[in-house]
Structures are given as structure tokens and as C-alpha cells.
Amino acid sequence: MIRPLRRRHLQIWSALCVLIPAGIVTAWFSIKRPLHNGVLQPAAAQALPNIIFSVEQKDYVVRLRSSDTLPEQLEWINKNILTVPSAVIYETVAGGEDVKSADLIGRIEAKGNYYFPLQRNSIKEKPKFILYDFIHEEIIDSLNFRP
Questions:
Q1: Cα separation of 115 and 111, whole Å?
Q2: Does residue 78 share a domain with residue 137?
């Protein structure tokens, strides 16, 4: 190598020694971090004061609650950790078994209390709630509320 070529070679490698780490640091800071709060449920709401219907099973308790000012609410209390991690709750009119025509209420995950607002007037329509595993596409349990 001749002298001007060695000087040019030194300048290029010196520039690369500075630019490559600067590029790595810039790329690292430009990545947007996803927000993750641990569970996929919204923050727990307060339970409404009036219990209309209640069903108690071995692994969970389900209550239909109401208030004078707010729409009805479904309270789901898991006593134990679910064996099916992909469980969702659907609401349908009593007698309905089809999940495709039912309304999605929400997802339950771990042990704890879950509160879901309801759209329909469930007292008059005699609701049926379906616990459904969407990965295996099978109904886990059905709950009928009867006064």
C-alpha cells in the first residue's frame, strides 16, 4: 500500500469506528416499546350493589348485578386458576347454543374477580352465558339464570 492509500484507509476505519456504535445506539432508542400491563382485562370496576341472580359452581361464582342508574353487570369470580387459558364468555338468550350468534362479554384469565357491563336487559330476556374455549372451539360450560 502506498502512503496516500494507507492514510485514506485509516480515515475510513476511524469514521466507521465512530459511526457504527452511534448507529446502533440510535437504532436502539428509536424502537418503540409495547405497553404491557400483565393482563388483557380492563382495570377492575366496582361491583354494583344489587344481586339479581347468582350461580355457584365448584371453580367459580357468577352473579348478575344491577343498579338504579347503571346498566346491568356480570360478576365472575374464579375460585381456582382456570385449566383453559383461552376462555371467553358469551351471552345469548336462553335456549341458544350457537356462539356465532351470541354477544361476546369478555375474557377471563386467572384467579380473581371480573366485572363485565351487559348490553341487554338480562332480567326480562332470561340470559344464558356460555363459557367457550376459542382455541379448541368447544363449549366449556353453560349457565342459565332462573329467578
A1: 13
A2: yes
- 54 close to 63: Cβ distance less than 8 angstroms: yes
**pLDDT tens for each residue of 81-127:** 878 878 898 888 766 777 888 888 888 887 888 888 887 665 556 77
Rg, C-alpha atoms of the chain: 28
Q: Name residue 108's beta-bridge partners.
A: 87
Query: Phi and psi of 82, rounded to 5°?
Result: -65, 145
Report which of 37, 62, 54, 49 is spatially closest to residue 116, judged by C-alpha positions.
Answer: 62
| pTM metric for this prediction | 0.63
Residue 64 structural domain: 50-144
DSSP H or E segment with residue 10 = helix 3-30
| 21 plus 74 within the same structural domain | no
The structural domain count of the chain equals 2
Tell me, yes or no, whether 67 and 23 share the same domain.
Answer: no
